[in-house]
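Possible regression after last week's pipeline update?

I re-ran a chain I had predicted before the update to compare outputs. Posting the input and the new output here so someone can diff against the archived version. Not blocking, just want to make sure nothing changed silently.
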Amino acid sequence: MDNADYAMVALRLANADLGNLDEVRAALHDEPWWADRLHEPDLPVLRGVADGLRRALDAMVAADDDTVLTEINDLLSTHPPRPRLSGHGGPEGLPNWHVHVAGPDAPAVDEVAAAAAWGLAQGVVQYGTGRWGRCGAEDCNTYFLDTSTNRAKRFCSPRCANRVHVAAFRARRRT
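New output (post-update):
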């Protein structure tokens, strides 16, 4: 994985409903090597990480840089990445160079927590705090990263944007 992928792990964890193990596994569907190794006792740790991610993301949305710094540093100190270079999984026996954020024997929950903390920190380094947002649809609380060139993203997905725009169009037509 690269740092951009870890930022997406942070967003998926922050946006996940962590009510049960199946929901956590669904949120981490792109990382089956973690999802398949998680267990019920890991849920409280992941809920704590998600809460910290949400506090940091809320601070970014509110342009509260001091809180962003505090929350992300708290996550990093509680769930420190322990980077190591890996080369497994490449095509035709060639190395697929990438960095893991936990040791080879670390429990999946430790790696997920460290990846989310590291990903959000690296996301702030790469994109700053002004590109993180919360969906503008009234009934959606999903966080997103705006990588558009004009920094105009207001919704987490085209689905939410379409719903809001269609509702506004219909409301205008009624009046």
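Follow-up from reviewer: compared with the archived run. The first helix runs from residue 3 to 15. Marking as no regression found.
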